[in-house]
Amino acid sequence: MAIPTLTLNNGVTMPALGFGVFQSAPEETAAAVTTALETGYRHIDTAAAYGNEREVGEAIRAFGLPRDEVFVETKVWISDYGFDQTLHAFEKSAGKLGLDQIDLLILHQPLPSDFEKTVAAYRALERLLADGKVRAIGVSNFMPEHLERFLPQVEVTPAVNQIEIHPYFQQGELLEYNTQRGILNQAWSPIGGITFYPGWGDDSRRSTLQDPVINEIAKAVGKTPAQVMLRWHLQQDRQVIPKSVTPQRIRENFDVFDVELTDHQLERIDALDTGVRGGPEPASITLETANFPIPEA
Predict the structure, then answer these.
(1) Is residue 229 situated within a structural domain?
(2) Cα dist. 126→6, 49, 53, 79 in Å?
(3) Which of 153, 155, 204, 288 is spaced 20 to 30 A from 193 at the CA atom?
(4) Whole-angstrom Cα distance, residue 288 to residue 297?
(5) Active-site residue (options: 50, 81, 168, 177)
(6) Is residue 218 assigned to a domain?
(7) Please, are residues 6 and 14 in contact by the beta-carbon 8 Å criterion?
(8) DSSP state of 209
(9) 287: Cβ–Cβ under 8 A, 6 or more apart, which residues?
(10) Using one digit for the tens of pLDDT, what is the confidence trace for 138-152?
(11) Is residue 36 in a domain?
């Protein structure tokens, strides 16, 4: 099945549905990516900070698809911010992935505590884009206040802003801000994984998979709660990157193109927003709290 595509602000197209490997242990990553490619996914999202770029690259090469049929995205971690450091971060990621060109390279965090380094890092991405070493560049976890400071200082508007978006945390203001500026909203934790990953939050946190409204809609349309949440995103023109290492769930998350939610069903999911972030506040990610080295290729 051909996956619908979304067109970025520089004309590059990317699949509307991708496959993420956040929190996938390196020893599980290659098998999970292989299953995803077998299923039909053609966008793989990783990051230097995930520690599994090498395994992603190995799986893609072993699968043997033509290079232009797999869209590869990765992220630069804050410890590699700065112009020269970020140019080298590309070399590290490209070396681990085994690629000469990365399709989408983004900054992992805004680092508001050292914004000059953030801007310098993005200017390095602009250089990589101009040199043809990446096809598109973007950011992740940038809030409107960060973008207000950032956009006047750079030449290339980010193609994407990868942000926490799921039914319990919808960030409507940020979604609208990005859309108005031609920045694609890319949802990490699109099925609310952050609400049930071990080690995040407290025991009182509700799982989106158990939500009665989502389950009622799932029953009505003959899909699972996860599939309903992915449709909710896709029908509102967001790119989504669900993750799993379980083959059945990897395949389930891909099986979302034969159903259409009604406007009323979309509105019912919209009404579930709690305004409570599941992941860390962007401002809490600093060089003092999260400055760990990214290994060489």
Answers:
(1) yes
(2) 21, 21, 22, 19
(3) 288
(4) 25
(5) 50
(6) yes
(7) yes
(8) G
(9) 78, 79, 111, 113, 114
(10) 999 999 999 999 999
(11) yes
Contact 173, 252 (CB under 8 A): no
CATH of the domain at 20: 3.20.20.100
Please state the pTM of the whole predicted model: 0.96
In the chain, the number of structural domains is 1
Residue-number span of the structural domain to which 231 is assigned? 5-290
Tell me whether residue 296 is in a domain: no
Instruction: Give residue 200's pLDDT.
Output: 47
d(CA 159, CA 167): 24
Residue 116 Ramachandran class (φ > 0 left, ψ -120 to 50 alpha, else beta): alpha
Question: What CA–CA distance (Å, rounded) separates 25 from 253?
Answer: 20
180 CB burial (10 A radius; 0-12, 13-18, 19+): exposed
Angle (CA) 19-9-240 rounded to 5° is: 20
Contact 186, 161 (CB under 8 A): yes
Cβ partners under 8 Å of residue 55, min gap 6? 26, 27, 29, 30, 33
The angle subtended at Cα 200 by Cα 280 and Cα 42, nearest 5°, is 80
Q: How do residues 177-212 score in pLDDT, each as one tens digit?
A: 999 999 999 999 999 887 665 444 555 567 899 999
Give the pair of three-digit tokens for residue 254: 């891909």
Helix or strand holding residue 74 (H, E): strand 71-76
| 50 is a catalytic site residue | yes
Tell me the average pLDDT of the chain.
95
